[in-house]
Every structure is written in C-alpha cells, then in structure tokens.
Amino acid sequence: VTRFEPNLRIPGPTALPPSVREAGGRQMVNHRGEEFKALLQRVSEGMKPYFGTQHDVIMLTCAGTGGLEAAIVNTLSPGDRVLAVTMGSFGDRFAKIAEVYGASVSRLEVEWGMAPSPAAVRAAAAETPDLKAVLLTHNETSTGVTSDIAALAAAVREAAPNALILVDAISALGAVPFAMDEWGLDLVVTGSQKAWMAAPGMAMAAVGPRAWAAAETATMPRFYLDLSRHRETAPAGETPWTPAVAVMYQVDEGLRLMQAEGEGVYRRHEVAQAMTRAGLRALGFELLAEDAVASKTVTAAWIPETLDWKSFNGALKRNGLVLAGGQGKLKGRIFRLGHLGSVTTDDILAAIGVLEQAAIEHGLDVRPGAAVAAAQQALVEARVRVAVTA
Length: 390
Ligand SMILES: Cc1ncc(COP(=O)(O)O)c(C=O)c1O
Description:
Blueprint: E1 7-8, H1 18-24, H2 34-51, E2 56-61, H3 64-75, E3 81-86, H4 89-100, E4 104-109, H5 118-127, E5 131-137, E6 139-140, E7 145-146, H6 149-159, E8 164-168, H7 180-183, E9 187-191, E10 202-207, H8 209-217, H9 227-233, H10 245-261, H11 264-282, E11 298-302, H12 309-318, E12 321-322, E13 324-325, E14 334-338, H13 345-361, H14 370-389
Parallel strand pairs: 1-12, 3-4, 3-5, 5-8, 8-9
Antiparallel strand pairs: 2-10, 6-7, 9-10, 11-14, 13-14
C-alpha cells in the first residue's frame, strides 16, 4: 500500500478536502427556512467573482450536463440557428443537446487537441444568417485544451452582434481567471465536482440580461430546468425544487477555502499544470495539446503504440494512482491526468513518481528519478514565474 487513499487524478469528480467532506455530513436544514436562505445567498454571491459577473448565479441540482441543457432550453426556440464551436466530445454534447431540442445547428469542428481560432469563428458566424446563439467550450476536458473565450466572444460580436454566447465553463471555472461580463458572455455554466472541490450534484449557471430577455420568448420545452422559476424564488432564499443541500454545504465550504487562498488558487493550478507536463514529457509521453492552448486543469497524453495500456494502468491503480482514459474517438488512444480542485504539488509529484515506476517496469526508457526531477524542476521554475507575475 503506497497510499491510504487513492490519488484521484481524473478531471472531476475531484478529491474533497477534509473540511469539505465534513461539511457534506452535516445535519439537514429546512430548505424553506432561514439557514438555507443564508446558505443559498452566500454561495450564489460567492460564486460571482469567479465567473467575473455581477449577474445572477443560479444553483441547479443536476450534473453539469443539466446546466448545459438549461442554457439551451431557456434561451432558444426550435428552428433557431445555432453555431456550435466544438473541439472535443463535450463540445459535441453541447451541440447535440441543441439538436435534440430542435435547433438548427451548424458546427465549426476543430481538430481534437487544437483550439478554435477567432478568425474561423468570425467567418462561421458571419456565414450563418439569423444566428441566434453560439455555443463555446471554455475548457475541453476530453482533449485538455482551453480556448481563448475573450477573443472568441469578440469575434462573435463582430460578425453577429445579436447572437447569444453560451459557454460550457464546467471544467476550468474557479481554477483560472474568468471575466464573463467584460467578455460579453450571456450564459456560463460550471459544475460542483470540478474546481469547486465539492461532490457532483450541482450545476451553477450565471445568466446575463440578454439571456434573461431571450428566455421571455424562447419556446423550447422546460420545467425542471426553467431558470426563471429559480429567479423568482431566489429573493426568498429558496430554489423551486428541493436542492442537493449536502452538496451545497460542500460548495459553500469549498468557496470558503478558495476565498482564503485568494489568487493563490490560480497560481496553484498553473504550477500543477507545469509540473504535470514536464513530468509526462520526461517519461517520453507526447502531449495532445501544445503549450499555448494547454488546459490548466487537465492534461492529455498519447498512449505509445508499444505500451500495453491495460497492464500499465493496472500498475498505476495498484499503486493508488487513478487516471482517466480517452473519450469518443480518443478512447484507448490517450490518457488524461486531472490537476484541478484540491490538487497540490505533492499530489503531482506522487503521481509522476508512480507513473515513472510503472514506466520503468514496462520497459520505457526512463532513468529512475528523471521524471520526478523534471516535475520538481518545473515546480521551481513555475514558482519563480508566478511569483514574478503575481
Ligand atoms: C467541459 C465539460 N462539459 C460538460 C461536462 C459534463 O458534466 P457532467 O458529467 O457533470 O454532466 C463535463 C464533465 O466532465 C465537462 O468537463
């Protein structure tokens, strides 16, 4: 036994800090009473700086996918023209939801592992007559790529000033700076099990005035995910339906920890990313995303054709390291290492150490200690870099 708890290095659900775990075990309260009112208001307000918004943040009891569905059904009508910019399986899912509800979806498909260019988005938006909405993925968890939402949103506004901009920010919001209002985004979604260090079960949606205006005329069917019902009940400190109270306790505690850490949250994710990339490269793995577009929360690497992945991953699991595999067309071809939420430098050093051991046992050409040293070197350099820019 190398660890009493696994090193859960998947891109969500993320490991829970002890105080978050304890928060989830608290006694229930009346969800129509004063304690819940204070909790809901504290959490919705506490989220706003991370979204970079002054607008409403709605707490939904559902998976992140429910938040994406809410973004679609509350703002659109069947037949509406939608441009889905997709760079991986989560972008495809967002597009699919719009299609299922009857939107007329055209896709700008970016090669998996790459990020969309503002010029391509501008051109695609300009080509679509009566464009009602553009769907963007902030951080594509299936490939480990982050897009430049500020630049993409500016491109959309140039080509189609009236189009709504709906953003899946599920897997990096909270871990990297974000500025919904400054960038002119209309609806942004995230999920409790990612950077927020809480269990799965809640999606958070920030809704701007243009999205609320669109909701007044949008005719896609909705009931459970009707955001206007949440808006109506929010002033009384209630949600329309019984919320996941225990998950909200955890989100509340996660936010408290994040607030105490301040800007350090962003620096910690930067350092974890740099260490991960250096460590994996030192092991000889080729990374899917180039540095310029690489995600701060998840890193994807190609599985070498000569490596028996099943046996290799078995060794990782026996030594307490849990990684994620590939999704969609990358299934069996890549592995992904999550570095978000409660991630520490120790977690990454430990993960690289286990990977290194398994690599040596599986005949990869690695000198013992080389990958851990590379991660450690990246830690030293990243600490200097982020200290200088902080
Ligand atoms: C970018 C992105 N979008 C959507 C989802 C879906 O969230 P959920 O699995 O909570 O429905 C995820 C979850 O991994 C994600 O990373």
